[in-house]
Amino acid sequence: MRESVNMDVRTVLRSLQVHFPALLEVRYLAERTWLRARRQPFDHDFRFLSGIGFASDEILIDIGANRGQSIDAMRLYHPRQLIVAFEPNPNLAARLPHLFEGDPKLVVHNVGLGDASGEFTLRVPCYNGWDFDGLAAFSFGDVNLSYIRSSIMGFDDAKLNYKDFRCPVSQLDGFKLKAGFIKIDTEGFELRVLHGAIKTIQTHWPILLIENSSPCEVLDFLGPMGYSEFHFEDKLCEGRGFRNTIYVHAGATRLAR
């Protein structure tokens, strides 16, 4: 019952936002301030980072940085670690250095990651002038329209459109980063990101947190390398998560389970 009520409240709030887009920035700022004051990550799954010990030169990598939610979560538990973030949306990427002004150990790249270098079209769904930037995707078929339709009361197809950005795309391997942790949330592009990161993965065996867009395919890719699936329930537990899955290599030494 409580979950149903929470979902109804979120639907009402989201519906208000799309009719009054200025509320969106107010909401994000208020939510970020509240979470930082309570020292909580935006997503429960990031709490597992509190039990991880990284070497001082290992890098935390955020692929699909969006509005910096994951950067806040990483920084909460690892205030002195270098974070390298990748965000293809030029509007969002431009905001991140200002949002984290004064953080000398954050590097932001306005580039997407995939399995080959080139240029792709990033499609951002918009409703009534409000960008659903968290649902932006390189593959048009991966834009989650069912989520948008179900989360707005009185949804009107005539108010739905798209913004397209031509974005550079590179391979993570080209950056030659000593990865300790990689978070990937790329709306269906996750497997292609992994293919472009295979040298980085096989060199450093980082812990990965990946959104469950295609978990079976991800496990087929990572499993033969020695990775296993975990999820977080106040501690790391074996098995796939609900929204995200944490992948840990069999030889990992960073982990306090």
From TrEMBL:
It holds the Pfam family Methyltransf_21. Residues 62-214 form the Methyltransferase FkbM domain. This is Methyltransferase FkbM domain-containing protein. InterPro entries: FkbM_mtfrase (IPR006342), SAM-dependent_MTase (IPR052514), SAM-dependent_MTases_sf (IPR029063).
